From TrEMBL:
GO terms for molecular function: hydrolase activity. Coiled coil: none annotated. PANTHER family: ACTIN. This is Uncharacterized protein. It comes from Triparma columacea. It comes from the Eukaryota. SUPFAM superfamilies: Actin-like ATPase domain. It holds the Pfam family Actin. InterPro entries: Actin (IPR004000), Actin_CS (IPR004001), ATPase_NBD (IPR043129). Belongs to the actin family. Keywords: Hydrolase.
Length: 426
């Protein structure tokens, strides 16, 4: 490898919904890859171990075009529904395979991966063991020449030109709130209500409107006499995913947050013009005030937050304004005002219209009960940047000339192992 000074770095944000990969110094990732992929056995039969399927890249083929894959395809996600990438039970080889696929789309020549240092965006909550294991996989299996593990919330702050702020990241699997003070991440708080949850919630609205479960795309255009066989043959993971994305497409177009509070009976909401949405099978449904319900789940509005869906799935979930206040109040008193004056919105789920004013309003309502003088400011980059905020921060940081000394080179890794990683990427 040439000197790390001379080279563009590769920046990868390996999220639970999508993997964003690109070059440092650029304003958008070159490649977006779905993190859920189809897994097909090369010998035609998937072998289940005692603890479920153990993925081995040697025996399995990865299908990235889920919509185009047969319905019998098993879908897997390296997060496996957890907070961190599952690096056990074959999850490491699944992660490696998806990483390799991203790199082969980015570089014509896969050997280029070994020519560029990698800034890998990691969760703030990731443990030292998780970071060490991640580094081992990236150096040993992915053959990278140098690494920096950047904390996601810190990178999101940098993307907004700040080193202090409270980052509210509404991602796929969850919403995470992390105070960052002068470039150091404090303890995060997390709610399971993220983009996937909102997708399912919006899907339940569509089901109610349609008066029956909405048919996902793979069933919608099929003759009704063939549907039950197709559903029987479909893998449950495939069917559930295709239903979820049906909710997702509609949510991204229609869902909104009521900027200044919500009441289903408020006159302004009652007179709202209904929006017509075409379901995959061609039937149309009219969405009125329901377009606000999904966003309300984030803010814990009583009638919505106590809906069956939230209870069935999680029991309860903290509204984001409470997460912001609790996370800030856990920080030293003299940091609190500056944290609240920079609440940074990040992640795809935070692109829902109306969220900026509402988050400020709800957070101020709590804060002013204690400290009336304090102001809450929400910093929200344009949605094109907000959905890639942590990737963008990584891209900026890795392109700074002074960043060179932060890379952990393969040589350092070989000599110092985990200690070198944890020292340079705290
Ligand atoms: N314009 C939009 N409006 C509403 N939601 C959106 C919009 N764009 C993307 N999303 C949602 O963002 C979510 C994915 O967010 P993001 O890409 O930040 O997740 P991730 O980083 O892969 O996941 P995680 O943070 O859990 O690792 C999806 O649920 C998607 O529907």
């Amino acid at each position: 490898m040439n000197d790390t000074n001379d080279l563009l770095a590769t920046v990868v944000d390996f999220g639970s919904s999508s993997v964003k990969s690109g070059h440092s110094g650029e304003s958008t990732p070159r490649v977006f890859l779905n993190s859920s992929v189809g897994v097909k056995a090369k010998n035609g039969k998937l072998d289940s171990g005692e603890n479920g399927l153990v993925f081995t890249s040697k025996n399995h083929e990865i299908l990235t075009d889920i919509g185009g894959a047969p319905a019998s395809t098993l879908l897997m996600n390296p997060y496996g529904g957890g907070d961190d990438i599952d690096l056990t039970n074959g999850g490491d080889s699944l992660m490696t395979k998806i990483f390799d696929l991203s790199m082969s789309e980015m570089f014509q020549d896969s050997s280029s991966v070994s020519d560029h240092p990698l800034l890998f965006i990691d969760r703030c909550s990731s443990s030292p063991d998780q970071r060490t294991k991640l580094a081992e996989i990236l150096f040993e299996s992915c053959k990278i020449p140098a690494l920096f593990l950047g904390r996601d919330a810190v990178m999101s702050c940098y993307a907004c030109g700040r080193s202090t702020g409270v980052v509210v990241d509404v991602g796929g699997s969850s919403t995470t709130v992390t105070p960052v003070f002068e470039g150091w991440a404090e303890s995060s708080l997390r709610s399971p209500v993220g983009g996937n949850f909102m997708d399912d919630h919006f899907l339940s609205i569509l089901d109610k409107k349609a008066g029956k479960p909405v048919l996902p795309r793979y069933l919608a255009k099929v003759d009704s006499s063939k549907r039950s066989k197709l559903i029987n043959d479909a893998d449950p993971s495939y069917h559930a995913y295709m239903r979820m994305v049906t909710g997702r497409y509609a949510k991204e177009i229609i869902a909104k947050v009521a900027s200044f509070g919500y009441s289903p009976t408020s006159p302004s909401h009652e007179t709202l013009i209904k929006q017509t949405y075409a379901l995959p099978d061609g039937t149309s449904v009219d969405i009125g005030t329901e377009r606000y319900d999904t966003g309300e789940v984030l803010f814990g509005h009583e009638s919505v937050a106590r809906s069956e869906l939230v209870h069935d799935t999680f029991g309860s979930s903290d509204p984001i304004q409470n997460l912001v206040c609790d996370a800030v109040f856990a920080c030293p008193r003299d940091h609190q005002a500056s944290l609240l004056s920079t609440v940074v919105l990040s992640g795809g789920g935070s692109c829902i219209p109306g969220i900026v004013d509402r988050l400020r309003l709800e957070t101020e309502n709590i804060i002013h009960a204690h400290t009336p003088g304090w102001r809450v400011k929400v910093l929200a980059p344009a949605t094109t940047e907000r959905r890639i905020c942590s990737w963008l921060g990584g891209s900026i940081v890795a392109s700074l000339s002074g960043f060179t000394e932060n890379w952990v080179t393969k040589k350092e890794y070989d000599e110092q192992g985990a200690a070198g990683i944890l020292r340079k990427c705290p």
